[in-house]
Design brief:
There is one protein chain. The chain has 116 residues and is mainly beta. Helices cover 11% and strands 47% of the residues. The chain has an eight-stranded mixed beta sheet with strand order 2-6-3-5-4-7-1-8.
């Protein structure tokens, strides 16, 4: 039996940009992606602490060291610049494997989106 468990989490990061006229996705600073063990095109869930919105999209790589978190396309309507969001991805794995799996959680400084 396989179950779905949390794989990666960027906890409470600040939205730096919202770009409605883009194909879709969330742009994430490459440093944050690496620290959270996220890859380009990975499906993520975004939870907006400011307004309670929850939605799914996929990751695109942002410029390293910029702290960029940009919601693109229709997702741009779910946030405003300055909102605090949580970005999570999940993995499907065997029940026994899931018992010992260790997810990657990071807690960036929400003022600068830098890794603490």
């Amino acid at each position: 039996m396989n179950i779905e468990v949390i794989k990666s989490k960027i906890h409470q990061v600040r939205v730096t940009e919202a770009n409605l006229h883009y194909v879709g996705s969330v742009t994430i600073d490459e440093d944050l992606m690496d620290a959270a063990n996220l890859i380009v095109h990975e499906k993520v869930q975004v939870v907006n602490i400011n307004n309670g919105e929850r939605f799914e999209t996929y990751v695109i790589k942002g410029e390293r060291g910029t702290g960029s978190i940009c919601l693109n396309g229709p997702a741009a309507r779910k946030v405003i610049v300055g909102d605090i969001v949580i970005i999570m991805s999940y993995a499907s794995m065997d029940f026994e494997e899931a018992k010992s799996f260790k997810p990657s959680f990071i807690f960036p400084d929400s003022a600068s989106n830098s890794i603490v």
